[in-house]
Amino acid sequence: MTDFRSLELFYWAAELNSFSRAAERANTTQPAVSQRIAALEAELGVKLFDRNARSIRLTHQGRKLVQYAERFLMLRAEMLSEVGSTVAMRGVLRLGVSETIAQTWLSRFIERAHAVYPNIVIDLTVDVSSVMRELLGRGDLDLVFLLGSVHELTTASCDICAYPLAVIASPDLELGDEPLSIARIREFPVITYPRTTAPYQRLREALYDPRQPPPRIFGNSSLTTIVQMTLDRIGLSLIPPIAVQKELEAGRLRIVDSALRLPDMAFKAAFSLTLSGSLARPMAELAQEVARAYDAQAPARLVARDRL
Amino acid sequence: MTDFRSLELFYWAAELNSFSRAAERANTTQPAVSQRIAALEAELGVKLFDRNARSIRLTHQGRKLVQYAERFLMLRAEMLSEVGSTVAMRGVLRLGVSETIAQTWLSRFIERAHAVYPNIVIDLTVDVSSVMRELLGRGDLDLVFLLGSVHELTTASCDICAYPLAVIASPDLELGDEPLSIARIREFPVITYPRTTAPYQRLREALYDPRQPPPRIFGNSSLTTIVQMTLDRIGLSLIPPIAVQKELEAGRLRIVDSALRLPDMAFKAAFSLTLSGSLARPMAELAQEVARAYDAQAPARLVARDRL
DNA sequence: AGAGGTTACGGGCAGCGTAAGGATC
DNA sequence: GATCCTTACGCTGCCCGTAACCTCT
After folding, report:
1. How confident is the model over B5-43, as pLDDT tens digits?
2. Residue A97 is part of a domain; what is its CATH number?
3. What predicted TM-score, i.e. pTM, was given to this entire model?
4. Which letter does DSSP use for residue A243 in this model?
5. Closest nucleotide to B49 by C1' from CA
6. How many domains does chain B have?
7. What are phi and psi of B194, to 5 degrees?
8. From residue A84, how far is each of A54, A80, B8, B42, B60 by CA, in Å?
9. What Rg value do the Cα atoms of chain A yield, rounded?
10. Protein-contacted positions of strand D (CB under 7 Å)
11. The pairing of beta strand A120-126 with beta strand A143-147
12. How far is the CA of A35 from the C1' of D17 (A)?
């Protein structure tokens, strides 16, 4: 074992119980994994896996080596972040982002991340928070920016930004000058995030009235579509105005005063504390910075500064 | 830093404050060290040494990296001894041996060591214990088999064997049948180890008599020469009989009963607890085994078994 | 047949050693 | 001039990816 790469591939092979999955995880081919592990075994003079043509299984010695491999890789990550400059950070970061953030400061974050950590490749997924929570838990994502919190023991998280929700409508929709009552809102379809999300659920509770027919809530997983539907006067929408800042400024949409009082959308960065998360912590910190800078330049009423 | 070798070379360069000495220590050329350290600096994006054409000096970041390098290398040594088979142990072991041992079981030890650890190269030095103690202290030897003990804090040692000293003479020398008194011994020159050694000093004390002229003690650093001089009847010799077992069996030398009572020659294996000693511990254990086996097959009176 | 690991093979590149260069004492 | 590090250069050997192969379900 003259090379960290061998230990890394071995680690993933052990962790994922498969050479091919390890290859995929570590961006190489399956024969490369096979070869390196064979070389490791030759060098140590010890079998690390029992191969059964259908599957592999760690031997006793293999299990011992996994412990060491993990210690090595964590020590390496610590060393890189401690003594290396930012260019020393290498690898792929599998990032999951909720669409609200994708519509606000994500592009600035990507830009900034690339400038500060030029050797880190970001593998981006945009989806709703519940899905990303699941993917993070399964180890399929390294870092997520999502709504709400994550409760896994092996996971750390930190606040990054919070945006108030508001009722948004087309200026062409006649709503009068009074703030909208709950009853008034119920007259319109309300377009918002999908069923699985916090805003949908909170909205549902707020509009709930046993004496009335159920409110029409259109859950939509595409923010762009929500915006389009709002522009088309299908109804009101409940989204954070900061996500449609451009439309507001251009006067194509407007914020409608209403009696609705919903909690702010509070976003957190969450990442695993295991090996796969070693790039995530500094990236999460960078995201905090970017979000703060973005908020500072946004109109005050679009940002929930007190949350931070 | 994809490679342990880089960290190893960096470690030695830092430790020895010189690229060329590091190269020598690690069995490579000086440009190789230069190149690898330059590569490390490029990879980390950080200067590790200040180069002043005449000398090098660690930078702040360099000092931090040394800590990590040491942890890596110790972890690696631990891993190799823990999960690797004996063929996984590689490197050069700089072994210092006192001549008495060289004349007894050293060749068996070398043979055995090569069989068990085929990838370890032994770099052998034979000298008196005092010199080897010094070399070990300076870090110029990794493992020594010597008389007496070593008191450095960073050094570990263990008993390996103990041999009684005896007066040896040519059978042709007429000495009578009585055990030799101290006074009788003083009539002859006594040939033994050099002035700096324990046997010489103990002998001097034993023969000391203020009322008499000083005894003639011939300190000689070559055991072969001591034997030759004894065969030539220059005088008596004081050496452990086990070192001349063949001559005793062949009847060319004999053990002479005497009133001299000197402590046994107790040999220890000593090695540094720092990085350079990582091969030494298992080798010291192997030496214990070999010495024990050798003693078991030697005539009982030549061995001080109770010492172990 | 297909999933998963091994073996075979050709090409690229990293790292080594030799040798020459340059700076400082 | 001697010492010590750097740069240049050719070569070897390793490692990777493609592709063919094997084996078990």
Report:
1. 999 999 999 999 999 999 999 999 999 999 999 999 999
2. 3.40.190.10
3. 0.86
4. G
5. D5
6. 3
7. -65, 165
8. 42, 5, 17, 10, 12
9. 24
10. 3-8, 15-20, 22-25
11. unpaired
12. 12
